[in-house]
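Entry:
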Amino acid sequence: MRKSLIASLSALLTVGAISLPLLAGCTTTAPRTGPATGKQLAELKGSGTVVSDEFGISVAVSGTTAVVGTSGSSYAGRAYVFTRTASGWKQAAELKGSDTNPGDNFGSSVAISGTTVVVGAYRHAKDAGRAYVFTKTASGWRQAAELRGSDTVTDDLFGWSVAVSGTIAVVGAAGYANYEGRAYVFTKTASGWKQAAELKGSGNVTKDGFGTSVAVSGTTAVVSAEGHANGAGAAYVFTGTATGWDQAAELKGSHTVAGDNFGSSVAISGTTAVVSAYGQANSAGSAYVFTETAGVWKQAAELKGSDTTAGDYFGISAAISGTTVVVGAYDHANLAGRAYLFTKTASGWKQTEELKGSDVVANDNFGISVAVSGTAAVVGAYGDGTRAGRAFVFRA
């Protein structure tokens, strides 16, 4: 959701991935009836958002509910919940952390699974960071927990990335130990949300940025370290068992080299994962699809946008739901941005649509964040309206 963690630390611009984030494990199997694939269904704006709020810096969707983050509002930040109704997509809630303050960047990362939303605030408490869990109740959306890593301290950036699937949440702390990074697994129990594991990739060292992007589907998590090996990057797969969380694989793209930032965004749905490398080929970017068979993860495809060129940052964001992948390229066409929709066919993964918001123009950064669930794709354009921001919903 953002440019290189290591290269951008001085600016501390999020994403995402952001944050990324999608929220895998939240796929739907609705029949494909209704609007054609690629059709824009809605343009979203948070109530009260103004210039520099950066609405759309992060997006997530699960079924008929979407979440859009805005790290502005004097950089205290907000997250907005939208639901699909018979008359279209409507705002259902405006979320704020119980103790967030100006400068916390609440909303820089968001995730959703069913009726559970997780929002990161990586600059809270002198950049130690926090993540907040919200649940939908009969009276609306309410904060259910405030998460913190068991050993996180100042500058750890806990909440840089967030993901959730059912009763499992994963939070990245990419700044931990001089940007070596960590990720923390939390589970929902009868007494609330509890930390279940602290993850670290094998061979991680300082400046790796482990936790740059996180994703989870069921009991499988993917955590990236885009700074690994001089910025070549790596992504790590972990599986949860009765005895804890163990690393199952280390993923690398078949053509990645130093500076490619493999792991700039990760996503997972079932046994298929997507890892993007927006720095590849002079920042034209690529995204890699991996599949798991009998416990072994192998690369299945390398994706590129049909008209992306150097500097487009294809792969700044990536999301997957079932057999559908969405990848953002927020620098395309003089920073107007694009998002690309890919589907799995009998002959492999193919681009099926190129998405653009109906009123997107230069500098809107459409594609800074993407999410997909079933037949709904959400794309953020945080630069729209002098960085007031927008998000767009499409038929996937």
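The domain at 15-395 is CATH 2.130.10.130 (Methylamine Dehydrogenase; Chain H).
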